[in-house]
Amino acid sequence: MSFLQPLALLGLPLVALPILIHLVNQRRHRTVNWAAMMFLVSAKRMNRGMARLRHLLILLARMLAVAVLVLAVGRPLAGGWLSGVGMGKRDATLVLLDRSASMEARDLQTGESKRSTALRKLVPLLEQGGHGTHLVLVDSATGQAREVNSPSALLDLPTTQATATSADIPGMLESAVQYLEANNAGRADIWICSDLSRNDWDPDGGRWSALREEFATLEGVHHFLLSYADRPERNLSVRVENVRRQTRGGDAELTLDVMVWAAGGDAVAGRIPIEFEVNGVRSVVEVELDAQGASLQGHRIPIDARLAAGWGSVGLPRDANPLDNRFYFVFSEPAVRAATIVSDDARIAEAFRRALAIPTDPGWRHRVDVIPLSRVDEVDWEGTGLLIWQEPLPSGGVAEEIERFVGSGRVVLFFPPGRSGNGEIFSTRWGDWQRPGQEQAEVSWWRGDADLLAHVGSGDALPLNELRTYQYRRADGLGTALARLGSDRPLLTRVGSHHGGAYFCGTLPTAQFSSLERDGVVFYVMLQRALAEGCRSLAPASQRDADAAALADRGPWEPVAPTDDAPTLSGRGLHAGVYRSEEYWAAVNRSLAEDRSGPSAVAAVGGLFDGLPYRRIDAAVGDTDALASEIWRAFLVVMAAALLLEAALSLPGRKAERARFSDLAAGGGAGRTETW
């Protein structure tokens, strides 16, 4: 419970006023012995126990009435989740808003999304209960902390609107910590509005322990999670992969794979129309749905042979989440995918070269260069999409070049060197070589919803359970684990954003270290995905995940589609669509994890705040009832009930006093009387 007028609570000592009046009245009584009244006094003593109880109840009722009146003047706030919680005065309030695509799941009756519902519930609470001297917004799309003038402004700010991005909850909390430390904010409330998507929370990442330690050093910081974990029923999402432009004789066509997924596997069997659009030309194809959705493999769309590059989209009928009903794609003539391997070990370098040289599609052309460490200055940094580094971690100018390489959207895969080295890059260093036991040699967990080890298009998992590791080196840093050995030992970690990144794999592919090369499938798929991701920014036509840095590699990018609601300059890269920069085309969409990642377990999310002041409030999409409301009227009802009780208890006492005075007027003899 909290109060809009907390100064009124200074009147609570008035509760003692009935006691004070009672004591004053007792001093007004004077006793005179009168023998004739001794029989009346004896009768009175027989009823004294019940009278004392009645007087005590009357006194308590009067005290309750005064107390409730003071509380009502303080204008109390309360809600079901606020019962028994003293919110007190805060110096700052931080709102961490998840703007990811999954937060746009809507209630079809009210039209409210999870994101808008969260804001409409939170704004009245901040307006009524106060937000301190600072109201700060940290949105998932930018990850930056910005001060806001008033709670009502949260409803209309561009930085609170829907995007096609994913969220990074640990990164948002890091921004919150930095703001609190930089501004000496004192007592603060942190409100997190989220749908608990596993991809957004990354509960298995390595950043949570450091976050808990940082928050533990800040006194008076409370965390509140406004949770919208329910998944929309019968919601379908569409995705396009493997877009290729092909020529057959004098004709040209596009081939592509289309996947339709059902949230939670609750699709209704039947046929649904899928709309295709290529450079403004539309067509419709009906597909059959099963429990998991539907797919079209190798779907062909004829195009003009003179059209070397262009764009298209695939759409579904409108349902609970409009942001996952359309997927954009771009196409062009295939470009060369280039990879560079830096290693002095010819046998290990050859294993990498063989896995990268064979493309996943005959239409692609791959180029793989193997360079020893002594000739690292020969690396083609501008034309390479993937760098594999199997030497001691670099420093100086080479490290700076690799950081720029990753920052431009390319990918680097670090593998441990055979010899020792104490280098560090991306705040990560290699530990010593270790030989795991038999149980720890197996992969105990890996991330199958996204990234290099994600399930294949059919939903089948990669055979990582068959992988064996005989020697490995741990990558010590704050990266996100993608695979773990045995008892929580990271085997593959990632450092970086959704666009580009640095990976650290703790073992080598040859038989002395692991079964990666022998089993082949996992090794090949992992490298091919890293190559495809790293070459996206180099291809004339590239598919990109929505992110603040999605279009940062070159510019200016001009929006091509959709044309009816084109994003502003600052919003490009955050919203799904097609963009063009001279001869380069880019299609921006939500990430694969936004479609495939399910919600985190509530208990697992609660464990992330272990040892910190934390409370979760479960809410439903479309329910915009206030989190807290004024309940002073209920206090007045309680006061009226206390006064009625006091009157009812006082009535028998007054009748007894009237009878007593009648006896005194008519009686005589020995005894005593009380003079009033």
Primary descriptors:
single chain; 676 residues; alpha/beta; Rossmann fold; 4 domains; six-stranded mixed beta sheet; 32 strands; 29% strand
What does the model show?
Residues 80-87 and 668-676 have low confidence and may be disordered. This protein folds into 4 domains: 2-79 and 632-675, no CATH class; 87-231 and 604-627, Rossmann fold (3-Layer(aba) Sandwich); 236-333 and 540-595, no CATH class; 336-534, Rossmann fold (3-Layer(aba) Sandwich), CATH 3.40.50. Helix 1 (17-28) runs antiparallel to helix 3 (48-73). By secondary structure, it is an alpha/beta fold. It has an 8-stranded mixed β-sheet, sandwiched between helices. A 6-stranded mixed β-sheet has the order 6-5-4-7-8-30, with helices on both faces. A hairpin with a 2-residue loop joins strand 11 (270-278) and strand 12 (281-289). The protein is 27% helix and 29% strand. The radius of gyration is 36 Å and the shape is elongated. The longest helix has 35 residues, at 632-666.
CATH topology (level 3) name of the largest domain? Rossmann fold
Characterize the biggest β-sheet: 8 strands, mixed
In the CATH hierarchy, the architecture of the largest domain is: 3-Layer(aba) Sandwich
The SS-based structural class is alpha/beta
Total domain units: 4
Secondary-structure blueprint:
Layout: E1 2-3, H1 17-28, E2 30-36, H2 38-46, H3 48-73, E3 76-78, E4 92-97, H4 114-129, E5 134-139, E6 145-147, H5 169-183, E7 188-194, H6 198-201, H7 208-216, E8 221-227, E9 236-248, E10 251-262, E11 270-278, E12 281-289, E13 293-303, E14 310-315, E15 326-331, E16 336-342, H8 346-357, E17 365-371, E18 386-389, H9 396-407, E19 411-414, E20 429-434, E21 443-446, E22 472-476, E23 480-485, E24 489-495, E25 501-505, H10 516-519, H11 521-534, E26 541-545, E27 558-561, E28 577-581, E29 584-589, H12 592-596, H13 602-608, E30 614-618, E31 629-630, H14 632-666, E32 670-675
Parallel strand pairs: 4-5, 4-7, 7-8, 8-30, 16-17, 16-18, 18-19, 19-25, 26-29
Antiparallel strand pairs: 1-3, 2-32, 3-31, 5-6, 9-10, 10-13, 11-12, 11-14, 14-15, 20-22, 21-23, 23-24, 24-25, 27-28, 28-29
Helix pairs in contact: 1-3, 3-14, 5-7
